[in-house]
Design brief:
By secondary structure, the protein is of the alpha+beta class. It contains 16 helices and twelve strands. Bound molecules: magnesium ion (MG). The site of magnesium ion (MG) has 8 residues, from strand 1.
Length: 464
């Protein structure tokens, strides 16, 4: 989450601590997602994930400022995760390692061990799926759950949240923070509020009062530009925004303005999407200058395929079909699709299929835009089972992913992508549940640059 650093005090575990802070204006607008909506949505977010895994595995690192993201403060690249001890020095995700080294001279710098974190992530997601099938993983270390229907087996949502936290701790040695509410928006903000090892439950009807005292930058869709514009209207907190007439916001920000007022009241209608309910994962890019250069076009398709495959692996799902989109300089757009020989989450087969589909459509034309999308998604990976051969390929790909995280996604270790002239291949994906809503999202860091990052394609940082 954005806006303010997390509270430093550790929450207690008594029943009273799980309740939402009774702050703000209880008499204020109290609308929930819809009257009578039960608070069954959970957001589960591992605390300082990469650093916590390292501290778990190497006891000598416990209590020390651990900075995951590279070999040392002289490395290029950025901080992926800082332990809470390092955060006391001001070290934050996405910060250049050099800056982190200056702020925290005694910091212990570690490389990103992508294979280990992916495996750990799968273990945690498998735990979550024991409590409901309605799990939407949104990054390597966080997921939304809808536990409506699980209550007969596991108790009310707050109890489910406690059981999940305990199971994660007992089985992986890691801590997670959980928010519980009537919507993803409330659950997400709640999970961030009392990190680490936090639990915040917002009862139905108390959303607006819960949000009111928080800075407006915590709301999805409020980036630095919007925050500045809102400040000119005298809006500092979400409560300030909630009392503004929606008309005024609509005049100033268009439809986005009306959405913001709804969110300020805690209203968010986006349901928890299960992986197999998700329709597609795609990336597209528009060239700075229309091009007919086959080398540029093919390299772009490769970059897009890499990005799609990386996200599929991150979500533990595979695609059965590839769709390409080709728009020429005259704005004529064609889409072509073909099934893959077998479901995959690897870049190479996706690229081969995309190239075969796109080549006839690109011939003799100047191309303005290319897109690669994977569809017919399934989740065969829920138990982490791969064939031996596939397991080897995955290990290789995950090692590449780790490099990508370490050095940034523009420096993928594929020789063909290293040529100059490659357009930025990874754009915000409109099918991502977070990107779809213009989420300004994914970390509690104050730096705008962090908040503007796309959570899924994010090359180096994981949410705290
Ligand atoms: Mg996290």
């Amino acid at each position: 989450m954005s806006g303010t650093p997390p509270p430093t005090r550790r929450p207690g575990r008594g029943p009273g601590d799980a309740r939402a802070p009774r702050i703000g204006t209880p008499g204020g607008p109290g609308a929930s997602r819809a009257p009578g909506t039960p608070a069954t949505i959970l957001h589960v977010d591992l605390d300082a994930f990469f650093a916590a895994v390292e501290q778990r595995d190497r006891p000598e690192l416990r209590g020390k400022p651990v900075i995951v993201g590279g070999g040392g403060p002289d490395d290029r690249g950025v901080v992926s995760t800082a332990s809470y001890e390092a955060r006391k020095f001001g070290v934050r995700s996405a910060m250049p390692l050099r800056t982190a080294g200056r702020l925290c001279p005694d910091g212990i710098f570690l490389p990103v061990d992508g294979t280990k974190y992916q495996a750990e992530s799968r273990r945690v997601m498998t735990i979550l799926r024991r409590f409901t099938s309605r799990v939407e993983q949104v990054s390597i270390d966080e997921a939304f759950l809808d536990v409506a229907g699980s209550e007969a087996l596991f108790g009310p949502p707050e109890q489910i949240a406690r059981r999940i936290k305990a199971a994660i701790h007992d089985e992986t040695g890691l801590t997670a923070s959980v928010g519980v509410g009537t919507s993803k928006l409330i659950a997400k903000i709640g999970s961030d509020l009392r990190k680490p090892d936090g639990l915040v439950v917002v009862p139905p009807g108390e959303e607006a009062a819960f949000l009111a005292p928080l800075p407006v930058s915590r709301l999805w869709g409020v980036g630095p530009a919007t925050a500045t514009a809102l400040a000119e209207l005298g809006v500092a907190t979400i409560g300030d925004l909630a009392v503004l007439p929606p008309d005024a916001l609509t005049r100033r920000f268009g439809k986005h303005g009306a959405d913001l007022v709804e969110r300020a009241h805690g209203i968010d209608r986006d349901p928890v999407h299960e992986p197999d309910a998700m329709k597609s994962v795609g990336h597209e890019t528009t060239f700075d200058h229309d091009t007919s250069d086959p080398e540029v076009l093919e390299r772009t398709l490769l970059g897009l395929s890499d990005g799609v495959a990386w996200r599929l692996r991150g979500m533990g799902i595979r695609a059965g079909t590839v769709v390409v989109k080709v728009r020429d300089s005259g704005f004529r757009t064609v889409t072509r699709q073909a099934p893959l020989p077998e479901p995959t989450d690897l870049a190479e087969p996706i690229y081969q299929a995309a190239l075969a589909l796109a080549r006839p459509e690109m011939r003799g034309k100047r191309i303005r835009l290319l897109g690669v999308t994977a569809t017919h998604l399934d989740a065969p990976d829920q138990l982490g089972l791969f064939s031996a051969d596939e397991d080897r390929r995955h290990r290789a790909m995950e090692a590449a992913d780790a490099l990508k995280r370490k050095f940034g996604d523009r420096t993928i270790v594929r020789a063909r992508l290293l040529d100059k002239g490659l357009p930025a291949p990874f754009e915000r994906d409109p099918s991502s549940p977070l990107a779809r809503r213009g989420v300004d999202e994914a970390s509690d860091e104050p730096e705008p640059v962090t908040r503007e990052r796309e959570p899924d394609a994010d090359a180096g940082t994981e949410d705290v």
